[in-house]
Design a protein that fits this description.
Shape: globular
Order of helices and strands: HHHHHEHHHHHHHHHEH
Largest sheet: 2 strands, antiparallel
Distance between the termini: 53 Å
Strand content: under 5%
Oligomer: single chain
Number of strands: 2
Helix content: 55-70%
């Protein structure tokens, strides 16, 4: 990758990492479900009028919008509102790579190789260490909510791969429009009209800036730059930069919010990042049928032999006489098993 593009990839990872600190601050201004709804509303408007019509079927946009918007971000915001630290959230959420590999094995038939299985095991050990650390200092329910958010992210990754959007930014903007109304409905149901109205009435420059950051900087700029990089380099060259997200997340949370980072958390970080690296970078084995199809499709085609001149037809036998039948050699099956 060119140095300028490497710097862009690092910048995107930094933007996504600092986003957890911004979410933590934003939860002091808004209830979590209302905050998530406003985030997607700002991400979809006015961008939806400039990206053109959706380039994939609506079922994929609605499916990803509900799982990613309502599931992942709704649960993440709820978990952080219940006490999950911003830095630890940025770390634990990376277990989505393990969930993605598991769900892809079931839905897409992608059999994980030994290296990927090893990486999943290491990442799960890291989650266990992080759970011990959080269980000793914070609410377990908040930790479970963020794990559930990571699982929803894994499902949305598989749905996105099935959708195969040709334009990632177009897809993300339309996906952002889907969860707005469901999140608003859930907010009114569980957080109450009075609490939502009070938060909106108290909206100031700080609150507006927070919404714009999580919507335009994190989503529009972040995913736009990411799709730009993926369009010019192999995914294997770009994907490893996501491992910097928890580094920026934990560092910014420690610097800006004063979150302590003890030995257990550093151990969990090392295990999780290492496991996710193995899981993300190791290739999945194709099913046997897919391997055979690929072998056939990529096999070199032999040049066509020149056509031999046609032999003259034999004269017809007189009526009543049957010509002697030439002895036919025994026919053997060809290489493909045809009979």
């Amino acid at each position: 990758m060119r140095p300028l593009h490497i710097a862009l990839a690092v910048l995107v990872a930094a933007v996504w990492g600092v986003n957890f600190v911004v979410i933590e601050i934003g939860l002091d201004h808004f209830p979590p479900l209302l905050f998530s709804a406003l985030r997607f509303l700002a991400a979809a408007l006015p961008a939806v009028f400039f990206v053109g019509r959706p380039k994939v079927a609506w079922k994929w946009i609605v499916g990803v919008g509900l799982v990613l918007g309502v599931g992942k971000f709704g649960l993440l915001f709820l978990g952080m509102d219940r006490g999950m630290p911003a830095g630890l959230s940025s770390l634990v959420l990376q277990v989505q790579a393990v969930f993605t590999a598991l769900f892809a094995a079931q839905a897409l038939g992608e059999r994980p190789g030994r290296t990927k299985v090893l990486g999943m095991g290491v990442a799960l050990v890291g989650i266990g260490v992080a759970a011990v650390d959080e269980g000793a200092s914070g609410p377990v329910l908040a930790f479970v909510l963020v794990i559930a958010a990571a699982a929803c992210w894994g499902v949305s990754n598989v749905l996105t791969r099935r959708a195969a959007p040709p334009d990632s930014l177009n897809f993300m903007v339309w996906v952002s429009a889907v969860p707005v109304l469901p999140l608003l409905g859930l907010s009114l149901l569980f957080e109450g009209w009075d609490r939502d109205a009070e938060a909106l009435a108290a909206l100031d420059r700080s609150g507006a800036g927070i919404i714009l950051y999580v919507a335009w900087i994190t989503t529009v700029f972040g995913f736009g730059a990411w799709s730009f990089l993926l369009g010019r380099y192999p995914a294997s060259s770009v994907a490893p930069f996501t491992l910097l997200v928890p580094v920026f997340g934990m560092s910014s949370a420690a610097l800006l919010l004063g979150e302590p980072v003890g030995p257990l958390r550093w151990c969990a970080a090392a295990l999780l990042v290492g496991g996710v690296a193995l899981t993300s970078l190791a290739g999945a084995r194709r099913p046997p049928t897919a391997q055979a199809d690929a072998a056939v499709s990529t096999a070199p085609v032999a040049p066509t032999a020149p056509t031999a001149p046609m032999a003259p037809k034999a004269p017809k036998a007189p009526k009543g006489q049957q010509p002697e039948r030439a002895e036919q050699p025994e026919r053997k099956p060809d290489a493909l098993g045809a009979r």
